[in-house]
Specification:
heterodimer; A: mainly alpha; B: mainly alpha; 2 domains; 70% helix; rod-shaped
Chain lengths: 124, 149
């Protein structure tokens, strides 16, 4: 195999990481974040306190809500980081491919034969 | 029967027991301890005493929320570890796509950018995911404790 062909195959490997692996995990993080945020709808009713016991939502809700929002933010940040890293990897792939016509041809061939990688479905 | 109905049932039971006892005591006794009210009206206060507790949130709401958090745990689960005691979930195989699942593809990519990428992103990812799983576990444990209360 020529050097260009080898480089093209390596670039296809990076494409798998950028278009399948990272986006799959990013989506998982999106799912986890949505699941955590789904608790917003019920939280007021769940922590409600009858006026006989002081009214409002009780002391536990504020602390819980704060932690919940923090977790959701962290999950969202991880999702974004994964998406941005995937984008950066694709920029590398494109930069290498534009500098080597033979590698670009091999990359295109692999994308055609094996298919352009796509994210896997969530487990949840 | 739901939580509220359970409490109403208990309140009615207490009230009826008090009324029955009063009637039994009143047999052969003309003393009117209730004034103008009947024992039924007098003991209706029992229902009022229980009412605030029937207004407490239904623990089922917490369980629905805990189930939402459990879905997040399924996604973030690092699998067999001490954390299993807290969530009892199988590992999400997709998490290995960052790490072992990408190693073979990333290995040919060398140079400073590649090294930094691996050191700053790929290597710490597993620990990061485990910490996030533990945070979700804490959220769920707090909800389950609240539901029990």
């Amino acid at each position: 195999m020529t050097d260009s062909k080898v480089l093209g195959a390596d670039l296809y490997g990076l494409t798998i990481v950028a278009k399948r692996n990272f986006p799959t995990v990013a989506r998982e993080y999106g799912t986890a974040k949505q699941a955590v945020l789904a608790t917003v709808d019920l939280q007021a009713a769940a922590f409600d306190r009858p006026h006989h016991f002081g009214g409002g939502h009780g002391v536990a809700m504020q602390a819980w809500e704060q932690l919940r929002d923090e977790v959701a933010t962290l999950l969202g940040e991880t999702e974004t980081s994964l998406d941005l890293s995937a984008e950066a990897l694709m920029m590398c792939v494109n930069a290498f491919a534009s500098a080597d016509a033979g590698a670009a041809a091999e990359l295109n061939r692999l994308n055609r034969v094996n298919g352009v990688p796509t994210p896997l479905g969530s487990v949840a | 029967m739901g939580f509220k109905e359970d409490l109403e049932y208990i309140a009615n039971g207490v009230k009826n027991a008090a009324i029955m006892r009063t009637w039994r005591r009143k047999e052969g006794d003309d003393t009117n301890v209730f004034g103008a009210t009947s024992p039924e009206e007098y003991y209706s206060i029992v229902n009022d005493m229980f009412r605030p507790y029937t207004l407490l949130p239904d623990p089922a709401a917490h369980r629905v929320m805990a189930e939402d958090i459990r879905r997040a745990q399924l996604v973030l689960s690092p699998g067999a570890s001490s954390a299993d005691q807290l969530g009892a979930t199988a590992a999400n195989p997709h998490l290995a796509l960052i790490g072992e699942g990408s190693k073979a593809y990333l290995d040919p990519w060398t140079g400073r950018a590649a090294e930094e990428f691996t050191a700053r992103f790929i290597v710490p990812f597993r620990d990061l995911a485990t910490n996030q799983y533990l945070m979700a576990t804490i959220l769920r444990a707090a909800l389950e404790a609240q539901a029990l209360m």
